[in-house]
Amino acid sequence: MESSELSLKLMSQSGVHARKKKFECNFCGKIFKHRTSVKLHMTIHSGKLEHSCYLCGKGFREKSSLKTHMMLHTGEKPFACDVCCKKFPTKANLKTHMNVHSGEKPFSCDICGAIFKVKESLINHMWIHTTGKPFVCSVCSKGFSRQGILNRHILKNHMRVHTGEKPFICSVCSKGFSQKETLKSHMRVHTGEKPFFCDVCSKGFSLKAILKTHMRIHTGEKPFTCSVCSKEFSQKETLKSHMRVHTGEKPFVCDICSKGFSLKGNLKSHMRVHTGEKPFTCEVLHSLYQEVILCRRKHKFTSKNQNIDNIGN
Length: 313
What we know:
The protein is mainly α. It is 50% helix and 12% strand. The chain contains eleven helices and 18 strands. The strands form nine sheets. Strands 1-2 form a two-stranded antiparallel sheet. Strand 17 and strand 18 (260-261) form a beta hairpin. The longest helix is centred in the last third of the chain and has 30 residues, at 283-312. The relative contact order is 0.02. It is found in: Nucleus. Keywords: DNA-binding, Metal-binding, Nucleus, Repeat, Transcription, Transcription regulation, Zinc, Zinc-finger.
């Protein structure tokens, strides 16, 4: 009797398990416990998104995803951090944020081992290991490693370069800048601040980029090579100027005689031909010249005195 009851019980349990796995996807064969689960799964294959936002039209497979999305429009943030009281729209966002307080860094790079608090930071970091820049600016054709960087380039910084907008004005000289950081760097011209110091000679610089260029004096590094004559340069701008030797380009033109020059400095020197300016004095010749003048004055004075004596006699 007991054996029969046990057999029936096993058969009953077997039937329960069989019923639980009877919902199968017709496309990929994946089995689900519930009819609603397989129905939701089928939207992956069909591309049909049943739940759509009535404000922006974005579609979602799950109703809960739509509900979370709606918080972007309503501004609702029901999940608050117990430490800093910052609020978040989803529980997952709050959980990620808590890593800031705990110091936990669960996301690690498989290539270099760098660890991060949030997954997005890891994704951004991974671009360091690739040299590709697939996201190209439609205005200037400059390439970027990520879409987000391109968007910031266009919306916040770069578009001002093309539109000419310069909303950040220097309070001292009224010069305008397209970026706040550029204005901040410019202010050091007026303050004389030089926060970037060379470790070798202790010379200070107003910009980090200038310090980087300066360091090549000590290292002897010349990363910019002329494609024509293979001459090497420490600065990109110097190479650019040098290339005019080969191209014959003379973009700097004299307003008076229309003579062209390859360098701005050469044009500046040339302008002295027209202005008559002579800013450089030879100390040796200057000293000799002064002696000649004094000698002439002395001689003139002596001759004058002799003439007076002759008249008196």
